[in-house]
């Protein structure tokens, strides 16, 4: 069963140099109270945003209430056998009234549901995608990831082939696939991260966060701990490699890759060569042996105790060892840096397009936070305060 928590938040903080201005708020912003499709207030935890007054906040909140959730979330009609959603709190919860969310209800089903919000771009802004997941029971095979779509996506026919910008979240199938998917769209192609990021599989609530910055760095967090970080160019194959092998430069003739060599000063002893087998001196020719009839007498052979095997000189370190030859690299003429890798325009829909082989659940809310971070990043500015409501039996 799929369950999210009490609310779904999308918020964006814009610095004073931004060309998009929604509303000026004081540095210490009031706690968000208004529930509606759009509201210009603060992050729901009311954190301090800095000393300057010119921060701007756009907050979109989708509230999980028993009544009206289907007006905000569109169930795809692409297939007639899509799994059904419902609202509930799951088997375990911290607060039955508050910890409610969407739940899947059937095993071995595809699910497709989405919610639309006012379009925005993340140009020159840090994009933060954040939500929580809770599995109420053991997972055999099932995705628990979300997708961000452009304004053009058709929610009524949303399906696995619907083009998306970002796919992020845990994906479990079998014993060995327990990963966090981070798939990014670049020029209409999808690129998987080259890193193997392990997801959580227990029955506690876990906070998943993806951060994409204008400097092309990224972070993946689980429960506010960084589990992977780096540069978009390094960890996705968006662009041709910066360096390529120089095939025009062969290994020099003098290059010696032998780490050890036979000792040229070691000589074979003069008495080394002995036959491997010798006639058995203890066996005599029988008295009745007739060489005319039986042929020449040859005693049986036995292993020679003096035989030492094939002589080999001892092995020593090669004084001329140059190491393993590595073909040198040169600048790739096909490589062209692209500072726009991180950009997505007209982000407007968040969706769940998943397959579940066995029932699983999410709890506690799903939110995507979009913020413009200055060169000095205030601590705690990019993510919401982690909620650790451990459900008790």
TrEMBL record:
One of its GO terms (cellular component) is sarcoplasmic reticulum lumen. This is Calreticulin. It is found in: Cell surface; Cytoplasm, Cytosol; Cytoplasmic vesicle, Secretory vesicle, Cortical granule; Endoplasmic reticulum lumen. Keywords: Acetylation, Calcium, Chaperone, Cytoplasm, Cytoplasmic vesicle, Disulfide bond, Endoplasmic reticulum, Extracellular matrix, Lectin, Metal-binding, Repeat, Sarcoplasmic reticulum, Secreted, Signal, Zinc. GO terms for molecular function: calcium ion binding; carbohydrate binding; unfolded protein binding. InterPro entries: Calret/calnex (IPR001580), Calret/calnex_CS (IPR018124), Calreticulin/calnexin_P_dom_sf (IPR009033), ConA-like_dom_sf (IPR013320). Residues 255-271, 374-385 have a biased composition (Basic and acidic residues). The keyword Calcium applies. Gene3D superfamilies: 2.60.120.200, Calreticulin/calnexin, P domain. One of its GO terms (biological process) is protein folding. It comes from the Eukaryota. Disulfide bonds join 141-173. Belongs to the calreticulin family. Residues 255-288, 367-393 are annotated as: Disordered.
